User: Fold this.
Amino acid sequence: MTNAWLYDGESALRRSVTLGVRDGTLEIAGEDGETRVAPADLVFIESRTEERVYGRKDVLGWRLGVPEPVADEIAALLPNAAHYGGWIDRIGLWRASAIGLAVSAAVLFAVYQLPHWLAPLVPDRVMKSYGDAMVGDFGGKFCAGPGGQAALDALTRRLAPNVKGLNVRVVDLPVVNAAALPGGNIVIFNELLKEAKSPEEFSGVLAHEIAHIEHRDVAEAMVRELGLGLVLTTLGGDVAGNVHGLLSLSYSRGAEGAADAESIAMMNRARISPAPTAGFFERLAKSEDVIGGADMLVYLSSHPVSKGRAAAFRKGAAKGTAYTPALSRDEWDALVDICHNDPDRQD
Amino acid sequence: MDETTPVDMKTGEFADGVTFHGRWQEFLPIALTNLLLIIVTLGIYRFWAKTRERKYLWSRTQFIDERLEWAGTGKEMFIGFLIVMAIFVPILLFFQFGLQALILRGQGVLASVLAIGLYLALFYLAGLALFRALRYRLSRTYWHGIRGGSDDGGWSYAGSAMLKYIIGFVTLGFLVPWAMVKLWRERWGKMSFGPYAFEPGDGPAVQGLIGRYLLIYATPVLWAILVFALGMGTIFTAGSNPDPRVMAGMMGTFFLAVIGFYALFSLVSLAYYAVFMRKVVGEMTLGNLSFAFNARTMDWVKLILGNIALVVFTLGFGIMYLGYRHWSFYVRHLEVQGEVDLAALTQSTTRIRSDAEGLADAFDIGAI
Assistant:
């Protein structure tokens, strides 16, 4: 016989009861008779000093206070103490924490990788409408000096004969930069052409941007930047509000490295030496100290120049390959002066 | 209750009807493991963490002769949260993308009407959330195996709250104390414990409050007096002396004065809130029990400064103790007088709802 107390969940009176075991059930005897409770209906409520409290699944407010120590035959019918809730109690705190940590790491990795997985799913139609909207933002700033565009298109075709739908334009803005936009659009800023000493130096930059488009890095960066907004435009929403700020799309370090590798391969296939581009990067890196001007730094901020980068281009030049000039002297002059010679230029 | 009622069927008179028996050392394992599990589950465990915290706090709270028990579960809080997210996420998405699209399509008027409507809806939901958080907490609080609750959904309360705060707003805030007291009474008047309804009092709503409340309006004046009294008046002539050292000194004084304004404003607001809580709790009765709340302004100041110091000096871990500190503060300052006829205290017949406090969670508000 074990003495205990009981709240029946009907009134606030605390009743004295005795506990016994009969036919595998808990028998609770009090002044008004006996009741039996199946062990499966009992739940652990809490441990107090010198007693444990149990409840019943089927009667709210029913509470049984059992003083410690509990006789073994009765303890066998009572549920175990709960601490952390649910399955954590079953497998233990440390194992649960380890599992939680592993699952959380997997979830975070998946969230980080999600843009990479989703990029191929972005429809070309959406990419094109974003691209058109962004290209439209440059308005009349595109340069069309005689022969310039033809030279640019020729170089693009030579570097990437198999990439369809590329649209490379030069914009008259005093910024040393180039950007791959959605929908196969590439924008070269005028100042970058002036900064490049040769068509070969420029070819490396152009090939790099083409590689971003080939690898669908643009779509990936858009998914990362716009997230759900992109999904909504895919479903027919408006593009305009999202375009702002897309020019600063940034790519992962891995994507930058892959684009460099692809651009070196592209140049070798086109028999344009990748080595001069290394010189361009080195000058950019140096100009950080010498010039200190914001113009030069734009390219650096969106394409971080590491020492390894210039070296990769330098080493990319295969010995014994018969490299040919990227553009003829005349073509290169026409390209560099594409904005200066533009008859429609408004200034 | 008559003379023949046996002694063990009623509770006696107690000097202090509510006592907190918790110790921070005892709570530490709970706080540490909660933090660990919250981190490794990216925050999802916080519903179970809250439940464990409340189970501890309730079980260490003695009300007259018996301790309270928290019977809520982490699962129901998690489900409540999911339900509310299902309502809120579309609204937020519409705010972010839908309105923009409407404005871009030249539907500016429609967009502003919708935006105002949505703000009002959120305002309404905030009132509903407060009501339901209180209802949830009472319905999961057991004492002697008996719980509280409410059969009211809070719909009319939420409407009343929205209306009263709009009235408070258009009267430049002068009717805010009136709204606060009225709404406290409305809220608690619809709550019950066992068979007894809470009686929130019906005296003049703002009696005893208005003096301290007007002090809040006087804060700028008080501040200016203080600034001059402390010889910081030079900040008003800043810029007339070009000496950089003088300027730097002035800037320092200026920042000190700005911080002083916030400190003064908080102090005056706390002074009002302290008297508000003493009034509204002091008016409440439940059956033969009457309540009082004795926290004075300095008690509140100590609570807040203690919270800040705790969080700062533990590099943030102290956040795990804020719930503990607030609960123990309320319990220590709550007084109960009277007695309970245990035989007459029968189980609550109010419906147990499963919405938990997801809505309040979404607005980040408490129940009191």
Notes: The interface with chain A takes residues 8-9, 33, 36-37, 40-42, 45, 48, 51-52, 55, 59, 66-67, 69, 71, 73-75, 93, 96-97, 100-101, 104-105, 142-147, 194, 340, 342-343, 345-347, 352 of chain B (CB under 8 Å). The first strand of chain B starts at residue 18 and ends at 20.
